[in-house]
Amino acid sequence: MTPAKFSQFEGKPVLDILGKGGKQRLVSCPESLAEGLLKYARKKCLDPQHKFFPFNRIRGWQIIKKAASKAGLEKRVFPHLLRHSDAIERLRQTGNPKALQHHLGYSSISMVLRYLSTLSQEDSLRIQQRVKFK
After folding, report:
1. What's the number of domains the chain is made of?
2. Are 26 and 16 in contact (CB under 8 A)?
3. Are residues 114 and 101 part of one domain?
4. Do residues 69 and 125 share a domain?
5. Distance from C-alpha of 43 to C-alpha of 40, rounded to nearest angstrom
6. Which DSSP string do the residues of 84-119 spell out, in sequence order?
7. Can you tell me whether residue 51 is helix, strand or coil?
8. For each of the chain's 134 residues, which pLDDT tens digit applies?
9. Helices 79-94 and 109-116: crossing angle, nearest 10°?
10. Cα-based distances in Å from 63 to 9, 33, 70, 79
């Protein structure tokens, strides 16, 4: 995980991270996760320039493969698959490709539109029913 710092947006925690290509991004963070990460950082005496979990890509792959094996998954599982799974689930929950674009750090909406094909008709109906008109 790259160095990150917490800030607030409308009273909720967000992570200010240095993402892919060295781009600065704000990412939503559940309050319980923010509290846990801050508690961990204090316990480990980490300052904002330290990585929360200093491991490399190889170790990341090892962790994911071990978890997949324990879960009994036979398909190939890789770290980037988690990014795709999260993107699809966020799109199902929000129905907002523009918000997903910002979350993922894509410069073009066309990258996000690929995820739309994963939504079922039922997903689309659920999203439509959550829309509130003023």
Report:
1. 2
2. yes
3. yes
4. yes
5. 5
6. HHHHHHHHHHH--HHHHHHHHT-SSHHHHHHHHTT-
7. coil
8. 445 677 888 888 888 877 767 778 888 888 898 888 888 888 988 876 677 777 788 998 999 999 999 999 988 898 888 889 999 999 998 889 998 998 888 888 998 889 988 889 998 888 888 877 77
9. 80
10. 32, 20, 11, 9
Amino acid at position 38, single letter: L
How many Å apart are CA 120 and CA 58, to the nearest integer? 35
- Looking at the structure, tell me whether residues 78 and 23 fall in a common domain: no
Note the residue count of the chain: 134
Q: Is residue 45 located within the same domain as residue 60?
A: no
* In a shared domain, residues 32 and 64: no
Q: Are residues 128 and 83 in the same domain?
A: yes
Domain range for 12 is 1-54
